[in-house]
Amino acid sequence: MEPPVIPRRASRAVRVGDVVIGGRSLVSVQSMTNTPTSDADATAAQVDELAAAGAELVRVAVPTREDSAALTEIVRRSPVPIIADVHFHFDRALEAIDAGVAKIRLNPGNIADREQVRRVIRAAADAKVAIRVGVNAGSVVSRTDEASRQAELARPMDELMAEKLADYLGIFQEEDFHDLVLSAKSHDPYLCVLANRRLAELWDYPLHLGVTHAGPAETAVVRSAAMLGALLIEGVGDTVRVSIAGDPVREVGVALELLWSLRLRPRRGVELIACPTCGRLQMDLLPILDEVKRRLADIDAPLTVAVMGCVVNGPGEADHADVAVCTGRGRAVLYCRGERLRTVDAEEIADAVEAETRRLAEG
Ligand code: SF4
């Protein structure tokens, strides 16, 4: 029996180009380029790679005028809506809106002048551009004087983040601007959970979830999964970014796997189930697993394939998989949807699994 689908918190629907964040839409996946944005060719190429991997929205950093000057070309070539990430300089936001981006990200911690924020809001409203207001634990504490800094540091950070966000959102409410997405990020996954629960209680704007500065892949994936999993299973969160130091394309695959695992999106491609290996193993399974994974990578059909090391769990997994192999000494038993098909030699395993999986995918 299929487990129930996670009920989602009711949030406003906010349009970002042709993507809707929140409302009844599926949780969307976004990532961020790490090329210099001023290099329009390199950035447009990376946007294409991210989109091909499954990113539905791509954010680009816009620290300088040269970066905002490249946006028109990047937006023109992009298959997905482009989001401008703006810090410190409100005029970068105005330039990005002129260049045709679909969304702006503002940080209350570094664009605080209320008149400047109003100008960005009015330009965004005129151009029908959404705005993400994203507070970061690293930039939320006042730096005006040491006494207030110490006082703020002594407070619960999730409370402080929500309070700073509430103050900033007051400007948007005065301007009657509601095409907003909110975020509260930290490198600390647990703090992210607490802060986003607060946001979900206080506002119905859609939430962008992510752990910021999550680190290299080994830690970033675990920390992101811990934070995103905790909130998404409570129905909180409308768009996600997994942040991993390095090639951003990996972020997209991790985010999709997370959403598939929580049944928040229909799976695309083959789900590989594999024995973790133990002392019962009678053949070198890992090269076979790598080969099977490589051969099935282009199949879009949502099929389950199990590569198992022995008879302890193999036949049981075969019952639930579309295609399964249960290996033994020099040979393996091939199954299709629980039915035992035949025995194959070790060197034929990858061929047999691929052929059977492609037959189902095409059928
Ligand atoms: S499937 Fe068999 S070999 Fe693989 S981990 Fe389980 S018991 Fe060990």
Describe the structure.
- With 363 residues, this protein is α/β, with parallel strands linked by helices.
- The chain folds into two domains: 13-261, Alpha-Beta Barrel (TIM Barrel); 271-362, Sulfite Reductase Hemoprotein, domain 1.
- It has helices spanning 40-53, 65-77, 90-99, 114-127, 146-153, 157-174, 189-202, 217-232, 249-261, 285-296, 314-320, 349-362; strands at residues 13-16, 19-22, 28-32, 57-61, 82-85, 103-106, 130-136, 180-185, 208-209, 239-240, 271-274, 304-308, 323-327, 331-336, 339-345.
- It has an eight-stranded parallel sheet with strand order 8-7-6-5-4-3-10-9.
- Strand 1 and strand 2 form a beta hairpin.
- Helix 1 (40-53) packs across helix 2 (65-77) and helix 2 (65-77) runs parallel beside helix 3 (90-99).
- The protein is elongated and about 75 Å long.
- The structure holds iron/sulfur cluster (SF4).
- The site of iron/sulfur cluster (SF4) has 12 residues, from loops.
The first-to-last residue Cα distance is 24 Å
* SSE pattern: EEEHEHEHEHEHHEHEHEHEHEHEEEH
Sheet with the most strands: spatial strand order: 8-7-6-5-4-3-10-9
User: Count the strands?
Assistant: 15
Poorly predicted residue ranges: none
Q: What's the main sheet like?
A: 8 strands, parallel
The helix count comes to 12
CATH superfamily of the largest domain: Dihydropteroate synthase-like
